[in-house]
Amino acid sequence: MTLSELRGVRRAQEEAQTVERHGFHPTVADYVRVAIILFIVTAIEVAIYYIPSLHGILVELLLALSSIKFVLVVLWYMHLRFDSKLFSALFAMGLAMTIALFVATLATLGAGLL
Amino acid sequence: MHQTARLAESTLETSTGLDNRKLAMWLFLASEAFFFGSLIATYLLYRGQSQTGPQPSDVFDIPFTSVSSFVLLMSSTTMALSVAAANRGDVRALRTWLLTTALLGMSFLAGQAFEFTDFYHRGLTLSSNLFGSTFYILTGFHGAHVSVGVLILLSLWVMAMRGQVGRHNAINVELSGLYWHFVDIVWILIFTLVYLIQP
To answer: What residues of A are in contact with residue B8 (Cβ under 8 Å)?
Structure first.
């Protein structure tokens, strides 16, 4: 098999896998829409930081807003929404271990933090 | 002939049906999550416990860091556009978006260098107090990761200019993109937990 034929086979395999697994692939317009949402969420984050009346629930609001940004980047820009579930599982495993580390560290050493 | 053999090898099916390089990158990112998680946990553990030296509220400039954060967020968008261009085989767009991403990354690093210098002049050093130690270690390691990402992007851009990156090896751009986006999501957490939520 020649080099160009191999390239063709490889591309065809990749495209077939993409269509089969993903069914959908984000367009440039999708990426721009996500960017606009990220901009708006960041602007809200900074705005509420300066609103004294919201300081009682500042931590909860900021964590929720940063979670939205985190999830948007992971699902759309890192393609976990469209990619194999195995990739999601690997990343979730890392996150779960990180959260466990957080809880263990702050609960045992950080008196009053948890 | 050597190139043909390499391509034939990469065409072989894996037991998972997935590209092993991509699988390895996700495993690496999972370990990186653990690494940054430990640094953030350490920062939170010692937060508000500094007896001397500048406190976060004395040195942080939220509007400035907000702009830096926005620059890094937008670099994720341009990186996603790079990957899309590579998958389409649009080499011209690929070169443009790769260079834009690298420039945005360098802008973020310039902002971080300015911020560190400013903090240093205000008396916050690596050894001035617990806040200084944990803050510089955490954000310094993140900055080092961004620097590595910029080097990868510039290498890809040079290769793209030479016609060595295109649709046939778009996976290389995709893997670099995964790393870049990861660096971005780590900053999303640092910006919120370190800068916005202060003791």
So the answer is: 1, 6
| pTM as predicted | 0.87
User: Residue B194's closest CA among B40, B34, B12, B14?
Assistant: B40
- Inter-chain CB proximity B188 and A2 less than 8 Å: no
- Report pLDDT digits (tens) over B6-52: 454 455 577 777 888 999 999 999 999 999 999 999 999 888 888 88
| Residues B42, B127, B151, B75, CA torsion sign | positive
DSSP string, chain A: --HHHHHHHHHHHHHHHHHHHHS----HHHHHHHHHHHHHHHHHHHHHHT-GGGGGGHHHHHHHHHHHHHHHIIIIIS-TTTS-HHHHHHHHHHHHHHHHHHHHHHHHTSTTT-
| Residue A30 one-letter amino acid | D
At A19-49, the pLDDT tens digits run 444 456 788 999 999 999 999 999 999 899 8
CATH of range B32-47+56-196; options 3.50.50.60, 1.20.120.80, 3.30.390.50, 3.40.50.720: 1.20.120.80
Q: What ipTM did this prediction achieve? A: 0.87
Residue pair A79/B14 in contact by the 8 Å Cβ criterion: no
- Judged by CB atoms closer than 8 Å, whether chains meet at B4 and A6 is answered as yes
- For residue B17, list chain A residues with Cβ-Cβ distance below 8 A: 17, 84
